[in-house]
Fold:
Amino acid sequence: MESPKYNRIKAILAEKGTSNNHLAHELGVNINTVSKWCTNKIQPSIETLFAIAKVLDVDVRELLVSTR
Structure:
């Protein structure tokens, strides 16, 4: 069963032309953690979402799937 989509981290990484490895390195987290975020198996904390947005130079709202 596919996980519900809560974040757009994978899509933003693709749009920015960067990799899971780069994001993991910049945040100081394990590559497996980033992979799980990208597949929506787990979700980053609010604080981590803001850190991801900073690394990827996007508004934090772009990282979330809209509820509308």
About this structure: The chain has four helices and no strands. The helical segments are 9-16, 20-27, 31-38, 46-56. The CA atoms of residues 45 and 51 lie 10 Å apart.
